Amino acid sequence: MRTLPLTPFCILIFAITIFSISTSQYGGVNEYGAGFMPTTISALLLFFAAIDLVMEFKKRHKNLSTFSTAEFKALALVVVSVMMFVCLVDIMGFVICSCLLLFTLMKVRGVKLPMAVGVASAASLIIYFVFARVLLVALPSATWL
User: CA-CA distances (angstroms) from residue 15 to 10, 20, 31, 80, 106?
Assistant: First the structure.
């Protein structure tokens, strides 16, 4: 049986890590710069994950359930997909890797193939355009092209 809500706990740890790194290395929200958005977003994520964790503990006595094999497979696939994204983004480039990551995550959720391909491609290109062209953020490009 679940003794601790896994998802809110993992998000909480991730938010604490990002918040501490962005405040210590990038100056946090004291000045508008590289640390402003990560600090702000991680603080919001920390706040909402803490609320989610409290809500999970409150309803815990009502509904105790175990992880199914499908949940374990989905969790493992998400972790492996994100790790592959991090490892391959410098080699394959941001657009291709983000498209593959989004496609994989949508297929895990049961989205149909045409919709998954279209949304993953459009989202990757929109993110690339906004960050690389509008905000002038250097995103990884493919080294093999």
Answer: 9, 8, 20, 20, 23
Q: Of how many residues is the chain composed?
A: 145
pLDDT in tens, 23-43: 777 666 666 666 677 778 888
Q: Which residues of 3-25 are buried (b: 16+ CB within 10 A; e: fewer)?
A: eebeebeebbeebeebbeebbee
Tens digit of pLDDT for each residue in 83-126? Answer: 888 888 888 888 899 999 999 888 888 889 999 999 999 999 99
CA distances, 46 to each of 50, 51, 123, 133 (Å): 6, 9, 25, 30
Tokens in use for 82?
């994100």
- pTM (2 decimals)? 0.57
Q: How many CA atoms lie within 13 A of 83 on its CB side?
A: 6
